């Protein structure tokens, strides 16, 4: 299974093509819209999210509510395009002079300058339109398809906020998976720790008042995975490696860790690894999950627990120093409309990105021309490893 996305932030539409989805999977646009709507919310979002109503149109690969096994194309229209038609239209124009809202002032922290240098775009709008986190809507659409596949084989994925700026949510070890889904959906900052919600919102409001932005940490939990998904035999088949690469590819993400992660550096081996037990009902089990569900690039059968850190969004009302590429003179960075904190939305994005990698690894491992084939194979595999 693979996917491609296309689309500029203020262009006509975002397009996702997903290829390799098993046939006969029940899939409707409501399945995808639910994810898209979740991504749009969260305290700290800017005005753009009031303009957009992200709803998907399925234009291929699905007939009468079921996948055909052919490529699925998903379209999300940018409602803001009507305000940008002149600026973003694909038709040729007489002279470059006519191009409005050209950008010659690169914003620190964005792709503007590096992309401008690489692709020789002196109007750096040609870079920022694609580097914008708007693209994550298209990735969430792909992830929503992955989540549907996973649901059929008893694997569930949820993302939530662990930290915003200096406010850390406590772990909720007794919370069930469904509670996590419900709590994160009810919380304006998508956290499971309701006692920290107000402090998180206050931190966002304060940053906004100061013309600044803040980041945070999001966590994704995957339940229902059998052991042995991924592989130890080659670097690019290690599932934790694939997830890590994919998480870092989310706009503004700077770090990733599984389980205790960086804390492992401060612990002894005896306090780090997860001891192995066996009983005939469950098969092999661990009493702890310090390694976040991975050993040797493969799942251990414990929940996958992965965190990602998002830097503060670099579009600031509080100016940072930069250089105009036309005059080569210093200036204080231009003001663009922005979110002051998109960490709650990023938890939804990361949930879908992790779901994609997990589903892809499963489809790599088992025959999956049809969803029933995949279900049968997974059932047999779960039985085999229980008796191993
Ligand atoms: C973004 C800037 C803002 C965000 C946008 C990402 O958009 P605009 O420049 O139109 O105000 O709202 O995020 C989205 C559009 C989205 O769908 O998440 C940026 O510069 O990355």
Write structural notes for this entry.
- The protein has 388 residues and is α+β, with helices and mostly antiparallel strands.
- The protein has one domain (2-387): Chorismate synthase, AroC fold (4-Layer Sandwich), CATH 3.60.150.
- It has helices at residues 29-40, 48-51, 81-88, 112-119, 125-131, 136-152, 177-186, 197-209, 239-248, 343-365, 371-387; strands at 2-6, 13-19, 56-60, 62-63, 66-67, 72-77, 156-164, 167-168, 216-223, 253-258, 276-279, 283-286, 294-295, 298-299, 304-310, 321-323, 330-332.
- The strands form 6 sheets. A 5-stranded antiparallel sheet has the order 8-7-9-15-10. Strands 1-2-6-3 form a 4-stranded antiparallel sheet, with helices on one face.
- The radius of gyration is 22 Å and the shape is globular.
- The mean pLDDT is 95.
- Bound molecules: ligand EPS.
- InterPro entries: Chorismate_synth, Chorismate_synth_AroC_sf, Chorismate_synthase_CS.
Q: Which structural class should the secondary elements be placed in?
A: alpha+beta
Report the mean per-residue pLDDT as an integer: 95
- Provide the CATH topology: Chorismate synthase, AroC fold
Q: How would you describe the oligomerization state of the chains in this entry?
A: single chain
How does CATH name the architecture?
4-Layer Sandwich
Q: In total, how many domains does the architecture comprise?
A: 1
CATH superfamily: Chorismate synthase AroC
Low-confidence stretches: none
Strand order of the largest sheet: 8-7-9-15-10
Element-by-element helix/strand order: EEHHEEEEHHHHEEHHEHEEEEEEEEHH
Number of helices: 11
> Approximately how much helix is present in the residues?
25-40%
Rg for CA atoms = 22 Å
Name the bound molecules. Answer: ligand EPS
Kindly, what is the distance between the CA atoms of the first and last residues, rounded to a whole number of angstroms? 29 Å
GO molecular function: chorismate synthase activity; FMN binding
EC number: 4.2.3.5
Function: This reaction introduces a second double bond into the aromatic ring system.
Pfam families: Chorismate_synt
